Amino acid sequence: MTLIRSIPGAVSISGARSISGARAWVVTAGRSCAVLRLDARDRLLSAHWGRELGLEQAAALVGVSVPVTAGAAAPGFGAVGHGGAWPFEEDVEGPLELAVGAAFQFGHAQLAVRFADGTRELELEFVSALIENSDTEDTAELVLSFADRHYPLAVESRYRVRSGSPVIERRLVLRHTGSAGEEIISILRADSASWTLPPLADYRLSQVRGRWAAETRLHRSSPPFGETLLTSRRGITGHHANPWVMVDDGTAGATHGQVFGCALAWSGSWQITVERTSADRTVVAAGFGPDGAVWPLAPGEVLTTPVSAGIWTDGGFDAASQAWHAYVLDHVLPHAEELRPVVYNSWEATGFDVSLEGQLALARQAAGIGVELFVMDDGWFGSRTSDRTGLGDWWPNPDRFPDGLAPLVKGVRELGMDFGLWVEPEMVNPDSDLYREHPDWVLHQPFRQRSEHRNQLVLNLARPDVAEWVHEWLDRLVAENDIGFLKWDMNRPFTEVGWPEAGNGGGDLVWRRYVENLYALLDKLRAGHPSLRIESCSGGGGRLDAGMLARVDQVWTSDNTDALDRLAIQEGFAQVYPARVMSAWVTDSPNPHTGRRMPLEFRFHVAMSGVLGIGGDLAEWSEEELVTAREMVAAYKRIRPVVQHGVRYTHGNASGDLSGAEYVAADRSEAVVFVYRRERRFAQMERPVVLRGVDAGGRYRDVGSGIVHHGAVLLSRGLPMALGGGDPVSTMVHLVREG
Ligand code: DGJ
Question: I need a surface site. Which of 374, 608, 612, 667 has the fewest CB within 10 A?
Fold first, then answer.
């Protein structure tokens, strides 16, 4: 009989220790856990992912009946058993935790390779299990190591958890263990993780879909039997899909039900494969790279995949989103504790028609309504007076800024605002000095056309000289002009993806190297300018993901600033990413994209549920509008800590007549409630909004009306609504706890 012993020290993450020799493991993350085991042929299988199990329960699950000593069920890793022959039915279509497509495995292969002699079959042998603890960061990582039985390839499947967080971070590390001179191994596919769901009565997939100016729109549907591929083949995260999915059994709602989710921290092309087997099990694999790209691994080289983070929650979609938000805020974002300032951005007001006087005039008006950060957008450099020319020539346009940027920066700072600047470092217009000098610096393939989009080509950031050049001018620009904020734009997808100078294979490698160099560039720039803050933008929300969020401070959500459209876009954004990173501007009415007219207050209330910015042409706003704007900006500054750092609860859905969001401070001392009505059709539209996050025992004063509400009443009968007439219409209620 195999005995399970509690592992002394496995009771806390910081105390976890090596359990080398064990054949099954429990990875506990918050209230969730994953149980893994090896079968007799060293295949790593998933025994459980979901609600937390103690060691004894996990042992029972993997078929071992054992006594367990005290303390074994606490959070952390623990061995659940070790044995020679496992009493499991061999199930090659079963839930593989590391799917390599070997022998009778016919499903999606998370890891696929080709050795120099053409062999593709992987035969992995288990080598060791190691737990690496970091007391300083309160994290633990389980490293399961395998080696091919014959070829020089080592594979690690890594699981990282943090104390108190329900997120499990997974990745693969591949190592060529041969010596110099041996042949390379071709990596055909290396997904970071396969996430196996337990058998559910049904499966429902939540995802976001979109396109330019219509990003992150939430969609839920039942996945078909077979494989569903969510992907970007564009070199960027993309507007059309976002690298996360959530799966439930079809019955979860905002407040109830189990939700399983996984996301990928990668900002280039990616794939998420949702495989629903004919046996009605569902596995989700997440990985980087487009289909078909083959990456060489030379002797001594290591390939580490990006993190795929997985969560399990049982409080419905809001609990899942709250868990994602906490993860991004606590473990991904730099300086998450900061409050993002109110921004003014000149793009919609001026387009390319930029001048010193025009910018200063806008800056004066922006300062007058309380803006804290003034950002000059496109059109300030080189010969950039339209989108046809100048990209790549990063010096102030001598006609528009004969004395450089200094007079503008000085003027903006004298108005009490920080200064920010738009850049698009990865791009070049063929009509530019840069391209005339370095036509080989762009992504291209020999004997093929170079397709332009918005009259521009993509610089090959995978090239070290290009990456170095970008860092050099950005570093100088930021230092010389005392720039506090960059809006880092990227306005086209990759095409003709090639890197001829890197030889055969360069065109495949570029997909990965480009992103690695982009990350290195951002990291280096930030390290050199610790107070610099960055907004990720890619023609709106085309580069939004956890990889980017580890290096930027906020994300431009969409070029579509129509507040009604934004409700849907922001609803999808908020599924995984917190308000603290969601840039949202108030722009003009009628909206330049849709021609729709909307009240100024409504536009503000929609933007105030993220990081508020103003993007309208303030020169055209009436005195009355400017007064309202000043009041709304002041109100935002009061509620901002709750919105940017609080817990978000969803009310209704964005396509419904009535929807809203409730933000509650972590200590429940304050709450902010936004309610939006698209269309009034029936009297019941005026029903109260039943809050979810306030303290039942608290008394809350409405800052606007002075009325005091009891928490218990707000949680049961709700917050009375009187939205009045006219559509669309909205309200914002700020509640402060009095007792
Ligand atoms: C696309 C961005 O999303 C816009 O906000 C603006 O910065 C333009 N690029 C400028 O070219």
Answer: 667
